[in-house]
Amino acid sequence: MQIIETINDAIAGRRTRFTFELLPPLKGDGMHKIFEAIDPLMEFDPGYINVTYHREDVKYVEKPGGLLERRIVRRRPGTVGTAGAIMKRYGVEVVPHLICGGLTRYDIEDALIDLDLLGINNVLAMRGDNLRGEHTFSAHPDGHAHACDLVRQIADMNNGVFIDREVDECHHSQFCIGVAGYPEKHAEAPNMEQDLRHLKAKVDAGASYIVTQMSFDNRRILDFIDACRRIGITVPIVPGIKPFSTRAQLSLLPQIFHVDLPEALVAEVLKCKDNKAVREVGIEWAIAQARELKAAGLPVLHFYTMGKTDNMVKIARAVF
Ligand code: FAD
Fold first, then answer.
1. Cα-to-centroid distance, 111 and ligand 1 (Å)
2. Residues of the chain with pLDDT under 70
3. pLDDT on residue 40
4. How far is residue 19 CA from its own chain's centroid?
């Protein structure tokens, strides 16, 4: 099933659903921690579950004599398998993420073929970030530089067009494509107007809905939705909420995700004696955010969990 149906049903029924994203297991781990994270959330009826994609990373290993050897490592492969395992166990729809970074168009096509064969009809299509040590994103020579090109490739495949153009008569995949949007602007965009234009290009290329980067400020989320509507983006927009959880995130989240933390949240976190208390502050903030967005009539809220869902259970119990 395409999750745009879930979103449209929620809109028609004036209901707000929630979804959350999980990471695939570290290489060498099995699925048990993922299942442990999902089990307590199933009673709250998540609309679907996202599985993130992790490109290769760079590691520097010191050699005798002090020289550094640059090694490529992959810590979390298995997005397609994780998504398939979740769908098989819970019967819930899954949305695997797929990125351009580090992949050729053929790698992408192979991943899409695997998803299609597994009966997974959803994908969140993104560009991905630059590798450690690279200042800007550089695409694979036979890959895509922007997410809109990835969206086009998926839409082409839905129309039976494969890269080598060797297939004539074929089964058509039916991927429902989601893309990323940035209420506080993508870090590389020169301004919000350009960023929104690029977002519209992704929708025009075939995306059916948008999921936003985390924001801790509902005003910015709602203003972003208004700005999207003003430039003619009509597809559903799913806000991203991150339950704040450690004191270190005061600097990590702005640094990694280029988002502002509201002063009221920062003040509450600074009062906390330990991270257990910070986690409670994060839960209360996320509950307040989710209640307000639900009252504003948003059909789906997307939660960033980083694989730990004890806080998510409390939020789901309070809001959904
Ligand atoms: P794009 O849409 O390509 O945009 C990137 C930048 O290029 C923007 O500044 C945009 O304005 C600009 N741009 C776009 N098109 C053009 C164009 N034609 N010409 C010039 N400039 C252009 N990353 C992962 O690696 N794995 C994940 O699983 C993952 N999940 C995510 C989930 C969500 C909900 C979100 C919001 C982000 C996620 N990311 C993930 C991070 C994402 O890959 C990064 O934010 C990345 O830097 C941008 O991806 P994008 O798809 O928005 O890129």
1. 19
2. none
3. 97
4. 11
**Domain-by-domain residue ranges, the chain?**
3-319
Q: Provide the pLDDT for residue 215.
A: 98
Question: With contact defined as beta carbons under 8 Å apart, do 281 and 244 qualify?
Answer: yes
Q: Tokens standing for 213?
A: 């980067």
Could you give the CA distance from residue 312 to residue 317 in angstroms, rounded to a whole number? 8
How far, in Å, from the CA of 43 to the mean position of ligand 1? Answer: 32
Q: Amino acid letter at 295? A: A
DSSP secondary structure letters along the chain:
--HHHHHHHHHHTT--EEEEEEPPPPTT--SHHHHHHHGGGGGG--S-EEE-----EEEEEEPTTSPEEEEEE-SS--HHHHHHHHHHHH---EEEEEESTT--HHHHHHHHHHHHHTT--EEEEE---PPTT-SS----TTS-SSHHHHHHHHHHHHTT--TT----S-PPP--EEEEEE-TT--TT-SSHHHHHHHHHHHHHHT--EEEEEE-S-HHHHHHHHHHHHHTT--S-EEEEE-----TTHHHHHHHHH-----HHHHHHHHH-SSHHHHHHHHHHHHHHHHHHHHHTT-SEEEEE-TT--HHHHHHHHHH-
| Digit-coded pLDDT (tens) for 80-111 | 999 999 999 999 999 999 999 999 999 999 99
Per-residue pLDDT, 168: 84
Where does ligand 1 bind, in terms of residues with CB under 6 Å? 52-53, 55, 97, 99, 126-129, 146-148, 180, 186, 188-189, 194-195, 198, 202, 211, 213, 240
Q: Which residue has the tokens 């979740």?
A: 86
CATH, range 3-319: 3.20.20.220
Mutation test of ligand 1: which of 179, 198, 209 has the most ligand atoms closer than 8 Å to its C-beta? 198
Nearest CA-CA partner of 311 in 288, 284, 289: 284
Helix axes 147-158, 105-117, angle to 10 degrees: 50
* Residue 132, pLDDT score: 84
pLDDT single digits (tens) 1-19: 999 999 999 999 999 999 9
